[in-house]
Design the sequence.
């Protein structure tokens, strides 16, 4: 099988190296395709992707590892591969959907999946009621475009919340206001879903003095046993986003598991180290079982 690894980072990232190792170990040919260096021949009966003056040969499957900052162009390239009949591990429409924090939460809410109390508004006249919607302070203000814990601020008092919300509005930034799940104790769960199954899960705990548990911000990770409800929540969340592979971030609240985010390009380093699972190998096995020509629900549309 010929597989394209669509990424901007190359082999310097652990996740990319592991996927390449796993693909080669199972006898596949895998090529790193640098996302931003690709260009496309669109308006023809034979769509193609070009790189460094040459047309890329056909691929059986594409593994998209598209960074948040290049979502628009990365998904355009992925759509082109979909139009050419390659099987995408995650489809372009699903990635775009999951990267829009507001849209993804609305999709999950419509499906009845547990979420923190969340508010979104544009007018400065709505600040007081917006704070009431999420149960008052403490609360979390979250930029819609933030990743890896960036653009997330904890407002511990009502006055602080008003100040932060007004400051973000002055910057004309789009943001959500969410209840602060105090009982989570600075910890969350990353459940990694492949297909219809949680294949690995870890508990991430924030370093002292920090409420964000991201490993990039100094958090630690350990193996965790999920409850049946948490496992079901993770699988349903990935399915509703349309993602075959996803990292679903869950908090344990007093009213059950609540989903914070569904990540379409989850990192493998932390979860493989914490669980000892060969997640990269499981992803390649999933591709082997499912990759067929033109097997794309949207065929590059949307």
Sequence:
């Amino acid at each position: 099988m010929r597989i394209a690894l669509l990424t901007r980072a190359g082999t310097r990232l652990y996740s990319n190296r592991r996927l390449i190792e796993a693909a080669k170990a199972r006898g596949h040919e895998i090529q790193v395709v640098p996302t931003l260096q690709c260009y496309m021949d669109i308006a023809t009966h034979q769509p193609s992707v070009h790189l460094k003056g040459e047309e890329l040969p056909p691929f059986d499957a594409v593994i998209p590892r598209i960074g948040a900052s290049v979502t628009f162009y990365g998904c355009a390239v992925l759509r082109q591969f979909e139009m050419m009949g390659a099987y995408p591990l995650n489809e372009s429409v699903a990635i775009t959907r999951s990267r829009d924090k507001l849209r993804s939460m609305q999709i999950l809410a419509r499906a009845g999946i547990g979420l923190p109390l969340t508010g979104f508004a544009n007018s400065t006249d709505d600040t007081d009621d917006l704070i009431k919607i999420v149960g008052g302070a403490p609360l979390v203000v979250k930029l819609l475009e933030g990743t890896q814990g960036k653009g997330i601020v904890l407002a511990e008092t009502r006055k602080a919340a008003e100040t932060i919300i007004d400051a973000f509005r002055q910057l004309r930034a789009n943001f959500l206001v969410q209840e602060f799940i105090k009982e989570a104790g600075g910890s969350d769960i990353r459940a990694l879903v492949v297909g219809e199954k949680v294949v690995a899960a870890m508990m991430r705990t924030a370093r002292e003095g920090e409420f964000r548990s991201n490993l990039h911000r100094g958090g630690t990770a350990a193996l965790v046993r999920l409850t049946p409800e948490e496992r079901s929540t993770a699988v349903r969340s990935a399915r509703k986003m349309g993602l075959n592979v996803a990292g679903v971030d869950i908090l344990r609240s007093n009213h059950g598991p609540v989903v914070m985010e569904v990540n379409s390009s989850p990192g493998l380093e932390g979860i493989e180290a914490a669980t000892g699972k060969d997640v990269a190998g499981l992803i390649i096995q999933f591709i082997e079982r499912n990759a067929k020509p033109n097997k794309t629900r949207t065929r590059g549309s949307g």
Q: What stands out?
A: The mean pLDDT is 89.
